Amino acid sequence: MRVKKTIAASTAVLMGALALAACGGSDSDSGSGSDSADSAVELTFWHNSTTGDGKTYWEKTAAAFEEANPNVTIKIQSVQNEDMDGKLQTALNSGDAPDIFMARGGGKLADIVEAGQAMDLTDLISDEVREVAGGTLDAFAVDGKIYGMPTAVLPGGIWYSKDLFAQAGITETPTTMAELEDAVAKLKAAGIQPIALGAKDAWPAAHWYYFFALRACSQESINDSAAQMNFDDPCWLEAGQAYADFAKVEPFNNGFLTTTAQQGAGSSAGLLANHEAAMELMGAWNPGVIAGLTPDGKPLADLGWFPFPAIDGGEGDPTAMMGGVDGYACHADAPKECADFLNFYMAQEHQEGYAEAFVTIPASKDAQAAVTDPALQDVLTSYNEAAYVSVWLDTVLGQNVGNALNGAVVEMLAGSGDADSIVATVKAAAAKE
């Protein structure tokens, strides 16, 4: 029952945060006091911003917390995003986990909670944070208790270069798979690589399957399949077949199977940042990643965004979105100052700083006015109009089943698997849970 309860909350979590228009609120820092003001406290903190403004943001925010709490020292370690899950799991297993670590909810967080390694924050969240975070806190709910606090809301879609679209004669963004395939053909005819894909990291390739499933499956089917770990609905096979059919038009960049997602100019994000490819399917963190990979280190001026297209005969609502809520949790054995720090970064000034540093959508409703990037504003519009928003499938399913799904998708793209093998692999992994 633990998994079912967790998934039921997670798949609907983002709907509680749909009121994203900025509203007035206090920018005072919350919860930064300590009952042990005379005792030295050290907090270890792992985050996934290894360079640029994001890394600087966390350094400044930690320093501000230390200034407000002179007895506290925060020891920061930056971990490459693609290495985070594995390194964290190793640290948890060895008993050497950080006090503060990334959390994205779903089955992954539920597994950590079940192992007794996450702090119950339910009674430690300030009233101010509860008000501005709203439904995003539900992303970190396990059996009715809260084990994390959010930093950003990250729905996904297709990011594209307006200049390259214009160069290829594409005047409208695709709304159907047929239109997307037509755009791919026009880009290839213009000598432009259509879609950047960092399949070496597996999850970016699997994101395409997630979205095909979102369009092929009804909301009820997605929720029930995730809750029961049952993938007998034909829509899961249909999603894989639709993906395989799309892959046959060869839409992805040369060498996509060995391309990374976010590391350097040759990554999928780097290809878009440097106009070496026209599109990339990714979450709402992408503008910030791309900005760090452009030649001048600034946001891509012609970056646009559109929702994942509809597919023929799909039972999913064409306005549905998929994404996640990034955030942080505290280890069960961390000092109480860990919870104080999470409350601290949720203050309006720090959430606005987060939105600006990461070029993304902050979790706090009071900080939404900081979203000025035109592409992200388009994301917000679609987000507000979405019939529902589901969490990334690998997050919902948990690390073991999610990783199996991601790997099976890559095998299909590599020619050593197919739509049937994706479903079979997921079923086999789920049977072991």
UniProtKB/TrEMBL annotation:
Keyword Nucleus: no
Transmembrane regions listed in the UniProt entry: none
InterPro entries per the UniProt record, alphabetical: Bact_solute-bd_prot1, SBP
PANTHER family listed in its UniProt record: ARABINOSE-BINDING PROTEIN-RELATED (PTHR43649), BLR3389 PROTEIN (PTHR43649:SF14)
Signal peptide start-end: 1-21
Keyword terms, alphabetized: Signal
Organism whose genome encodes this protein: Cellulomonas xiejunii
Keyword Signal: yes
Protein name listed in UniProt: Extracellular solute-binding protein
